[in-house]
Amino acid sequence: MSEIRIPEDHPRYESLLTRHRIEKGVDEGITSRQGLIAQGRGEAFDYLLGERTTDGADAAERAAAAALLLADHAVLSVNGNVAALVPGEIVELAEATGADIEVNLFNRTDERMAAIAAHLREHGAEEVKGLDADGRIPGLSHERAKVDADGIGDADVVLVPLEDGDRAEALSAMGKTEIVIDLNPLSRSARAAAIPIVDNIVRAVPNVTRHARELRDAPREELARIVDGFDRERALGEAEREIRDGARSDVSPTDR
Ligand code: PTJ
After folding, report:
1. CA of 218 to the centre of ligand 1 (A)
2. Model confidence pLDDT, tens digit, residues 103-150
3. How many CB atoms lie under 10 A from the CB of residue 55?
4. Less packed terminus of the chain by CB within 10 Å, N or C?
5. Is residue 230 part of a domain?
């Protein structure tokens, strides 16, 4: 048993645990109620992908690690779902790549900003950006335009997990290299990204960290080769094919 009463041998253990974390996030004022809907959408895609990191996603995660290590100033953007699902893992990724952490919310309130920043600090974050909000992303009318001038405002590489499409497109228009984690390969944010990672954030973030640790001492030329060799169109196409072809053929009906 773990943090909730789900036996670990339950065939849907991981999925139920993830769902519980989002529910708890809502109860604690970290995750928005819309975050529950986003989670449901994500689960459906993950189910069709076979709830595993595909080879294409792993290649994207390696390219993401290389891009974060190459960056002059990388920032990991955190919303309410990310904070509920992978708070400690985001802190580890920041440590492994030298990236900053910034809270950026669609449904922004002072209370949620403070709750998420406190939650990240409890998980080891030393500095959490996003509270100053003294910068703006041009062309966005909603709350997501609010950024720290010395955070996302100044970054050359930004990791934006579980976004809606607007900000992803606006950040690309600002010339920033964008890494998106989104289980839907057709989403506007995945399509706007230089490096779209079609994987569940609970698997993706630790795997980017693993790659970053492996690549830590690699020469810049090798990191650049990994980033340049990543083919975003191909990665998106492969992920869509995996979903359409029903990758669940390996799973018995009782597991569903
Ligand atoms: O915390 P806030 O206020 O910033 O709000 C955040 C949410 C997530 C509510 C907001 O960004 C939103 O409404 O997002 P969407 O438009 O529902 O998009 C979320 C995307 O993330 C969808 O394409 C989902 O398939 C995908 N997704 C959901 N859960 C996961 C996921 N991708 C990876 N891992 C997941 N666990």
Report:
1. 33
2. 999 999 999 999 999 999 999 999 999 999 999 999 888 889 999 999
3. 11
4. N
5. yes
- The number of residues making up the chain comes to 256
**Which one, of 47, 52, 3, lies nearest residue 23 by Cα?**
3
The answer to whether the CB of 168 is under 6 A from ligand 1 is: no
Pocket test for ligand 1, best of 18, 47, 81 (most atoms within 8 A of CB): 81
Domain extent for 78: 55-243
**Based on the structure, what is the number of domains in the chain?**
1
Nearest CA to ligand 1 atom 1: 80
Q: How far apart are CA 134 and CA 126, in angstroms?
A: 20
CA 163: distance to chain centroid? 8
Rounded Cα–Cα distance for residues 74 and 62 (Å): 16
Looking at ligand 1, which residue's alpha carbon is closest to its atom 34?
200
- Going from the Cα of 222 to the center of ligand 1, the distance in angstroms, rounded, reads 33
Sign of CA dihedral 211, 117, 177, 244: positive
Could you tell me the distance, in angstroms and rounded to a whole number, from the CA of residue 19 to the centre of ligand 1?
13
Token pair of 132, please?
């100053």
Q: What is the domain-level CATH number for residue 168?
A: 3.40.50.12640
- Among 41, 147, 162, 236, which is best to mutate for testing ligand 1, by the most ligand atoms less than 8 A from CB? 162
The rounded distance, in Å, linking the Cα atoms of 250 and 232 is 27
- In a domain, residue 17? The reply is no
Of the two residues 4 and 19, the one the predictor is more confident about is 19
Query: Ligand 1 within 6 A of 89 CB?
Result: no
pLDDT per position as a tens digit, 164-202: 788 888 998 899 999 999 999 999 999 999 999 999 999
